[in-house]
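HOLO CASE FILE
Compound: iron/sulfur cluster
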Amino acid sequence: MKDEQTKKTGVSRRSFLKTVTGTAAGIGISQMFNPALIQALEKGLKRHPVLWVQGQGCTGCSVSLLNSVEPTIADILLKVISLQFNPTVMASEGEIAMENLYAIAKEYKGRFSLAVEGAIPTAADGRYCIVGEMRHKEITMMDLVQELAADAGSVLAIGTCAAYGGIPAAEGNVTGATGTMDFLKSKGITTPTVNIPGCPPHPDWIVGSLVHLLTKGVPELDDAGRPTLFYGENIHDNCPRLDMYDEGEMAEILSDPKGCRMDLGCKGPDTYADCYKRKWNSGMNWCVDNSVCIGCVEPGFPDGSSPFYEPA
Ligand code: FSX
Ligand code: SF4
Ligand code: SF4
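Model generated. Tokens follow.
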């Protein structure tokens, strides 16, 4: 008898898990689904809270993480990793939430991870992004990241906005939007920082990097501060349409089922990520299947990829 997932997607739970297993790289997500490993992580990570703060973003990074299907990433985050603060999913709000945030940071000084989502606006003393208030004093994203990052054991810049400034730092940038590493450097803060770009990043990249950080330390990073585990391979070099590119068989319209999509604006040749094998939407598809790669994980995104519909 077909299970629920088969009915919805035509892919059985078994073949879905096989897909995930087959596409995971290194400490892939499939290994994290192993119950023995989850139990081990549960013990090891219970005392390691993750505080997730949000600045200039669209919340897509949180949604990407929580959107995973089977098993849910939300389960892993809430039961395995001690996610203590995330404005999108937590129930508490206002001054109580802020007090709790600072109390956890104090209690676990040097041992918690700070996850930053969204860029940090630095113009006008950071007043373009007020993230809370305590004792009638407004707290800017700048203040929050500066204070918490200095006390954190590690920092994760989640999403291209947090990693490099992304969309808020695109041409114009009146708010002085800045990526986390640049911001921390400007403040002399040296806490180890890992970039997990993507607009939004794949849930596996977020959880995989976090678990690596907590169990094995900082993963190997490339020049752009990204784990090579997930961002070490060029999309074009591994694209299933590479043969068509080599043959000069080019797609002319997006609905063309065949052909290399370079003439339609594909930025695969300038982009490093494992989307071609990990795939998105629970392993169902990826950008090049339906559209083009717009280079969303690259430091120059979006200006460097624009216009999206023209070849690089
Ligand atoms: Fe940026 Fe996150 Fe793009 Fe959005 O909040 S990485 S705009 S998908 O989601 O920060
Ligand atoms: Fe390269 Fe994009 Fe063409 Fe694939 S579709 S071969 S990534 S240019
Ligand atoms: Fe981003 Fe390209 Fe991967 Fe799509 S295929 S998620 S645009 S890096």
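CASE NOTES: The longest strand covers residues 49-54. Residues 1-33 have pLDDT under 50 and may be disordered.
CLOSED: yes
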